[in-house]
Structures are given as C-alpha cells and as structure tokens.
Design goal:
By secondary structure, the chain is of the alpha/beta class. It is built from 18 helices and 17 strands. It has a six-stranded mixed beta sheet with strand order 7-8-6-9-10-11, with helices on both faces. The protein has a six-stranded mixed beta sheet with strand order 14-13-15-12-16-17. A five-stranded mixed beta sheet has the order 2-1-5-3-4, with helices on both faces.
C-alpha cells in the first residue's frame, strides 16, 4: 500500500542518515584521537624543553640524569634508565632478576604537597624531581609503608640491618584528619589552630588552617557591626553560614588533593553548626576532632584582646575604647547561642581550659597524630619570654672546613664564648632587672658547644638531641672531598637537602624528629632560654619557631658568632639578630 511504501522510504531515509551520522562520528573519533596524540607529543616536547635534569634512586643510591643527553618520552624509557643505571654489577642483583625494574612501581613526590604517588604520566616530571623505584625486598625512607614481600634470605638480612627511621609521621596516619575549633571569641582558638599547624607542618605533615573569619572579611568586608553576629539576625546568620560552607568546601577539596591534616578555625559554637561539620566529614570519610578553648581567666582574655583582636582588620581605624566596646558586644551575641561540647554529641573532642591549665579528652580516634597533638597542646602557654638561638663559637674543624667531628674552640671561638656571656647578662638585666638571674642554658654534648657556655655561671643542661647532624662516613671530610670521592652522594644532597641522608648518618628530617622533645620543652618553658647548638640544629629549631616549611630549613642562614633573639607572640615570633663577633666562618655538616 501507499502507507507501506511510505514507511519503507521513511526507514531507508532514516538508515541513510544513521549511516552518514555514524561515519561522521567515526571521523570525529579519529580526529579526537589524532588531536590527543598531537597534544601528547606537544606535552612531551615541552617536557624536554622545561625539564633538564632529574634524579633516579634505588635504595640509598641516587644518580643524576641529564635529559638533554638521555631523552625520555615514556614510562618505559624511565624503567630502561633504572635497569641500565642500576644493573646487576652495581647492586649485586642476580642476572635472572634483571627485569625487576619492569615489574615495580615508580614513585614521584608531588612538588607542593610533598605526597609520594605512583608515576603514571610522563608529563608529571619536573626539574630536579626524584624518581624512586620499589622492588621486592627494598624499603624507601621517604615512604616506608610501601614494602614488597620477598622470600629471599639475603633480602631479609638486608632489611634487618637497615636501621632507617620513618621520615614522615603521616606514614603512620592512615586517615585524613580535621581539627575543628570551638569557643567564644578571644579564647585563643586561632592561637591553638596556628600552633597545631606549625607543629604538624614542621614535622612534614601537610597541614593547612581554614579560618572562616578570613572568608567573611574577604567576601563581606571586615567592619561588620556587632548586630551582624546576633543569632536573631537571620540575614547575618545566613551570610555567616554561607562563609562557613565556602571554607568547608575549600578544606575538603584541599584534603582530597594531598592534604593530611586540616584545621577548621571558627567559633562553631552551636549544635547545628557542629552537626553540619560532622555530617560532611562523615560523607568525605574524614576523621574529625573538636578542640574547644574555654577561658575563665579574665587576664588571658584581656591579653588576647590586646595581642590579636585590637590589631585585627575588623577594628582598623577605630579607637581602642570603641573597638573593645564593639567586641564585647559581639561576644555577648555569641553567648546567646553558645553550647559547650558534651558527651551527648558523641564526638571526639579535646577541651582546654585557660590555654592548657586543664585538658579533657574524649573518644580520640585510634591513630597516631591525635595523641601527638594532645601531648603538644599540654605544653602550650602564653607567658611572654625570650628565646635565644646561637651556634657554638668557631671550632678548629670550622677553620679547616671539616664536617662533623668534636673539636675544641679556636681563640676566636673562645672570644665569642666570653662575649656571649657578657651580652646575655647585660640583655637579661635590660629586659627584667628584678629577675635577671633566671636563665635556662641548653647545649649539645659536643665540646665546642659546652665550651661556648663555659663563661656562664648558671646551671647548664647538655642534650644529645642538640648534637650536630651526623655526617656518617663523610665525617672529617670537606665538601670538596665529598664531591671528589663520592660524587653521587654530593649530587643527591644537592638535589634534596631536606631528605638526603649521609651514608651511615642522618638527614635533616631525622634531625627534626629527634628535636621534637626539645620543641615540647621550649613550648613548656616560662623563663628565658639560650640554646647553644650547631648549624643544622639551629636551622631546624628556627624553622619551627618562625613557621618555616621543612624544605626551607636546610637553607636558613645562621652565621657564626651571632645571636638570634626570638620573642613569641600570639601568632608567631618577633626576631632580632645580634652579631657579637664578625669575620669567622667555617664549614658545618648541615
């Protein structure tokens, strides 16, 4: 029928269009594949132009690779590099296992988060990056948790004799972690948040503070009237909730990209807000600990207002009297809806009263870092005092440029020791005339450090934790000799000074770990301290106190015969340097 013929034509027409469309789709797919190949080729060309040098590492051996001489364009090329540079002859690997580099993951460290991950894209390479392969029976000091099983007795013996320390604490921390501050304004929440972040980052744990107040200032303006914080002001409540969610979104996004510990810094004073945070953390599979700061001491509140709030952008251009009136009005508004943490909420929490005078702990997660943070918080206080850092006076080994050792002071070093004792006595009398006899003196156990404190009449404490970085088999050598006799070690140290470990010795990361108890004690002290130690040690201590990233510590300038005076404040330290003797420098193991 006409109807059937019409249907048949319609079907044929549809089929033609379908075939044309399919052909067009296939052409587009081929075109996309073509474009993708061109893009990959372009990326590889850019890689060759931008990345000139990389390091490849197996065990404790690193090799420098010049990509101009040895171009690479794939992961396979990298595996070939490992196999050719770390062959059976070099590593005593049996000929039957020459292919082991082709069956093992290659790791690279993210340049910002410092997180190690398996390399899958050649374009992830960057200049001076370190690539490390994990093979059966090897342990990496950067990520020791990646251990492959082996049945080789020689490998087991090798593991038993491998006394390597775990470099990063978060190797023991399986879960992402969020600390959430709770409390009324001016109770020290941000002080605690920044202290925890500084401590965690110094240990090498990627940590970041997300302060909701900063989101409010940046997006809504700093100068908000006290009524903005009234819980009965629906418009203000919605605006503050929006800022809280924005900060939360950024925080969980950061954690998903390599962060380990985040600190969500705000009042978080209502049950509703804490439920919102807990629900989101549960959805993101992140552990959460609330940290509530309760201040009943009016003196602490007054000091906090003076030190931080009156300097805040919220009160810029306002007289102190008006600023205090407005701020106390803001506190009263928060009190209307403030609910302290309780067991009924079924949350993990830490409660601190008057900045650590009393601490209550409830249901902490069963993981490593929470326990370290609790112990750290137990040592905090806000009593003002001076901290002086100085290297020992010039030693005999310094004049020869020798690494390590335990030599005595030169005449110049002796002069500095006398000058340092005089200067400290005068400085103490200037700062606190009525209490100038109180001073804690800490030295290392090495004689050049002890001799530098010899002219101080007060009691001294000698701590092995303050000894210079152990240069291992490089002790007693100059850097020039290391470069000549051990060029691979010299290059490996130059490429990553923080993580490089001297053969049989230490790395800067090792020094940071052994200084952790010293940091707790520094935080606990309420009296002035002078620490007389060594270049690498002073760098690491200074890095913690001045909130420097671990990668910066090995490069901090610490001249001989110079005193670094640090005055702790609420959110950091004021610094002043005093050169007591000039013109004498020398080598050090750092």
């Amino acid at each position: 029928t006409n109807k059937d013929e019409f249907g048949k034509k319609e079907f044929e027409t549809s089929l033609i269009f379908f075939l044309i469309g399919s052909h067009h789709i296939l052409e587009r797919k081929e075109e996309k594949v073509d474009i993708k190949k061109k893009m990959e080729a372009t990326k590889k060309d850019n890689l060759t132009n931008t990345v000139k040098t990389i390091f490849i590492k197996y065990g404790d051996t690193a090799k420098k690779i010049n990509l101009q001489d040895t171009p690479i364009s794939s992961i396979q090329d990298i595996r070939d590099l490992f196999n050719s540079r770390f062959g059976a002859t070099t590593l005593n690997i049996s000929a039957g296992r020459k292919d082991l580099f082709y069956n093992s993951p290659i790791f690279i460290q993210h340049p910002t988060s410092r997180t190690w991950y398996a390399l899958e894209d050649i374009c992830d390479l960057y200049s001076l990056c370190i690539l490390e392969v994990h093979t059966p029976g090897t342990v990496s000091k950067e990520h020791p948790h990646t251990l492959h099983h082996t049945h080789s007795s020689s490998s087991l013996l090798k593991l038993k004799n491998n006394h390597k320390r775990i470099n990063n604490y978060y190797g023991l921390q399986r879960d992402k972690l969020v600390f959430v501050t709770v409390g009324l304004p001016a109770r020290g929440k941000t002080f605690l948040a920044r202290k925890i972040a500084r401590y965690m980052n110094w240990l090498g744990v990627p940590t970041q503070v997300f302060n909701v107040g900063n989101y409010r200032r940046q997006r809504l303006g700093a100068k908000q009237k006290p009524e903005f914080f009234d819980p009965d002001n629906k418009e203000g409540v919605n605006a503050r909730l929006h800022m809280a969610v924005l900060a939360m979104d950024d925080m969980f996004d950061w954690l998903s990209k390599g962060g380990i510990v985040a600190i969500y810094d705000a009042t978080n004073s209502t049950l509703e807000r804490r439920r919102l945070i807990s629900t989101r953390a549960n959805d993101e599979n992140v552990k959460i600990i609330f940290v509530e700061s309760i201040c009943e001491s009016q003196q602490i509140i007054a000091e906090n207002l003076k030190e931080t709030k009156l300097r805040s952008p919220d009160f810029e251009g306002i007289t102190p009297d008006v600023a205090l009136t407005e701020f106390f009005h803001r506190i009263e508004n928060y009190k209307k809806s403030y609910v302290t943490l309780s067991d009924e909420e079924n949350n993990s929490y830490i409660k601190l009263f008057d900045v650590g005078s009393k601490i209550i702990i409830n249901k902490l997660p069963n993981s490593y870092l929470p326990g370290r943070v609790v112990f750290f918080l137990m040592n905090l206080h806000i009593v003002p005092r001076k901290i002086w850092l100085t290297r020992h006076g010039q030693s005999m080994d310094n004049t020869q440029g020798l690494l390590g050792g335990d030599s005595s002071l030169t005449p110049s070093g002796e002069s500095y020791a006398r000058r340092l004792a005089e200067w400290l006595s005068s400085r103490l009398n200037e700062i606190s005339p009525s209490n100038s006899s109180v001073l804690n003196i800490w030295t290392s156990t090495l004689q050049r450090s002890i001799q530098t404190a010899a002219y101080m009449s007060r009691r001294k404490v000698h701590l092995r934790a303050l000894d210079e970085i152990d240069a291992g088999s490089c002790e007693g050598m100059t850097y020039e000799e290391v470069a000549e006799r051990m060029p691979e070690e010299y290059e490996a140290r130059a490429s990553d000074k923080l993580r490089y470990r001297y053969p049989g010795g230490e790395s800067y990361e090792d020094v940071i770990l052994r200084l952790e108890p010293v940091i707790f004690e520094v935080e606990r002290q309420r009296e002035p301290i002078v620490i007389i130690a060594h270049n690498a040690v002073i760098r690491c201590l200074y890095g913690y106190l001045m909130d420097k990233k671990p990668e910066q510590c090995p490069h901090i300038e610490v001249p001989l015969h110079t005193v670094i005076e640090l005055t702790p404040r609420a959110y950091g330290c004021d610094e002043e340097r005093f050169s007591l003797l000039s013109g004498d420098e020398g080598a050090d193991s750092g």
